[in-house]
Amino acid sequence: QLRLVESGGGLVQPGGSLTLSCAASGGTSDSYAIGWFRQAPGKEREGVSCIGSSERTTDYLISVEGRFTISRDNAKNTVYLQMNSLKPEDTAVYYCAARKLYCSPFPHDYDYWGQGTQVTASS
Fold first, then answer.
1. How far apart (Å, rounded) are the C-alpha atoms in residues 21 and 81?
2. What CA–CA distances, in Å, run from 84 to 16, 53, 81, 115?
3. pLDDT tens digit string along 67-114?
4. What is the four-CA torsion angle of 20, 71, 36, 33, rounded to 10 degrees?
5. pLDDT, tens digit, 9 for 90 and up, residues 32-53
6. How far apart are CA 110 and CA 100, in angstroms?
7. Residue 30 region, left (φ>0) first, then alpha (ψ -120 to 50), else beta?
8. Collapsed DSSP state (helix, strand, coil) of residue 91
9. Are 50 and 38 in contact (CB under 8 A)?
10. CA 63 to chain centre
11. Following CA atoms 9, 75, 46, 99 in sequence, which dihedral angle do they give, to the nearest 10 degrees?
């Protein structure tokens, strides 16, 4: 049973940066694709970024492309989401999730979820 724990959220001013971490335990995460999702109040959960198990595949939501970078360190069982030039519309609870091998943009395709971390971009 894979367990995921997110960290690194917080309050930043618009234009600021944060790095989220998703640490996996209870198994090795290198055979899993890891996705980052976010959910703002009153909105549906949406896929932000994903990295495949092979690390060769990365996907991004169009609105974050060029500002966010996903990476993974399999030796540490950790996936990172570097977020730069944050905007107020990036404000949401961010979740990481895992599924075998390949990325999917759909939350229902993921088998394991973290508890979420709040990101707020506001002046």
1. 7
2. 6, 24, 10, 23
3. 999 999 989 999 999 999 999 999 999 999 999 989 999 999 999 999
4. -140
5. 999 999 999 999 999 999 999 8
6. 8
7. alpha
8. coil
9. no
10. 14
11. -140
